[in-house]
Design brief:
The chain has about 425 residues and is of the alpha/beta class. The protein contains 11 helices and 19 strands. A 7-stranded mixed β-sheet has the order 12-11-13-14-15-18-19, sandwiched between helices.
Length: about 425
């Protein structure tokens, strides 16, 4: 009797164990109205499950980025500006371990192409860069004609261009072109003209400008706005790229004696330095109010005696309060102690970084994907020098610039 009872107890216990095992199996993978119910795995108290790997994958395959501008010819200063900011950018890239392309950290190879300040060399240079398998081209030239040709070449070669800015005003038919920093001519012309009209109420305005297509366009827009307000257009003087002696032109302007002189050098800080250095020898500006273009406000030009009391339109000037400007000035001083960056330096710095960030946004070094990413409406660089920089779907952006007053070698912001 005892042995049989013991056997029955053992069989019952085994059956009960099988019931529990079967229930557990059904809970894990059994059919429940056609849906699988998964029991969470058990965890050991005090043991933290490792998170996803945060260390990015590193590749030695470089991203090839083309830089097309003038290292020779009349606008060779543009290439010098590029070289000076590349020293900073390469240090930043080294510290960051490259750029993040789809979760992979990759180094950057800059492929430079000199257009020698010639439109023909811009076109052939762009084709060479495309054949050299660059992912994107930055800057695009140093004159309006070259920048326009670069935009056309971007479309022909299907390699995107992050232009320094003097591209055709309407980019709707140029899906492979975006402006990297400079705004539309109409934006600049409106800002400057309204400032002149509201602050000086002039009867006559003169112009001193570089011989460039986009500058002519800017001047024509300003003339239209000023004449519509009843202003007479006085002396209109143009000079070639690379001019260093402005005495004859400045003499004519002083003889014409406009209430306001508007100057446009297309970003050449050395040109403004020459103008401001020569004007004191001609007796100064007299009663003429001078509103200069970009780069009069920064670098050596602003330190010249002839700059004092001059107003200037600029995209950037030292001392701006935004975090991007402060960060740029810190890295500049660290790299070039005792010197001051110009607006041209910032223009090249931002244009090159926009190209880099376009690759990161695309998550690819495929030119077509980069072109789409740049115009996706999702490109926004919050810490750009001068403030948050956003590229619109039409290839334009939100930067307009400010007017500053040069006094004692410093630029004081008048408008923002």
């Amino acid at each position: 009797m005892y042995n049989h009872a013991s056997l029955r107890y053992k069989i019952a216990a085994l059956a009960l164990t099988l019931v529990f095992v079967l229930s557990a199996l059904l809970a894990c993978g059994g059919d429940n109205n056609g849906e699988k119910t998964m029991t969470p795995p058990a965890t050991t108290p005090g043991v933290t499950t490792p998170a996803a790997i945060t260390t990015p994958i590193v590749s030695q395959e470089p991203v090839r980025i083309g830089v097309l501008t003038s290292w020779s010819g009349g606008a060779a200063r543009a290439g010098n500006l590029v070289d000076e900011v590349l020293k900073i950018i390469n240090t930043q890239l080294k510290e960051a371990g490259g750029i993040n392309v789809g979760g992979v950290m990759r180094p950057v190879n800059w492929i430079k192409q000199d257009d020698a300040t010639k439109v023909s060399d811009t076109v052939t240079g762009y084709k060479k860069l495309a054949l050299d398998n660059v992912a994107v081209v930055a800057v695009g030239g140093a004159t309006a004609a070259s920048l326009t040709a670069a935009s056309d070449a971007a479309e022909d070669n299907k390699v995107p261009l992050v232009s320094v800015g003097s591209t055709p005003e309407n980019l709707s038919d140029l899906p492979f072109t975006v402006r990297g920093i400079y705004p539309n001519a109409s934006d600049v012309s409106t800002l400057v003209s309204e400032f002149v009209l509201n602050n000086f109420k002039p009867k006559k305005v003169g112009f001193l400008s570089v011989e460039m297509q986009d500058i002519h366009h800017r001047v024509e827009l300003m003339k239209g706005l000023l004449e519509a307000a009843g202003v007479t257009i006085g002396s209109e003087q143009y000079y070639d790229v690379g001019t260093v002696d402005f005495s004859a032109l400045l003499t004519r302007i002083k003889h014409d004696n406009p209430d306001v002189l508007i100057t446009n050098t297309s970003g050449m800080d050395t040109t403004y330095q020459a103008i401001f250095k020569q004007i004191p020898s001609l007796g100064g500006w007299g009663d003429i109010k001078v509103v200069a273009g970009d780069n009069a406000a920064t670098g050596p030009a602003s330190k010249e005696v002839g700059a004092d009391g001059t107003y200037s339109w600029t995209l950037w000037t030292p001392g701006l309060p935004d975090s991007g400007s402060k960060a740029f000035e810190r890295v500049w001083v660290k790299t070039y102690p005792g010197s001051t960056p110009s607006g041209g330096h910032v223009a090249m710095y931002q244009t090159l970084w926009v190209a880099l960030k376009g690759v990161e946004l695309a998550g690819s070094d495929n030119p077509a994907k980069i072109a789409q990413a740049l115009r996706s409406g999702n490109f926004q660089w919050d810490n750009a020098p001068g403030g948050s920089f956003k590229i619109n779907r039409d290839g334009t952006h939100n930067f307009k610039g400010v007017i500053v007053l040069l006094k004692d070698g410093k630029a004081n912001v008048i408008t923002d």
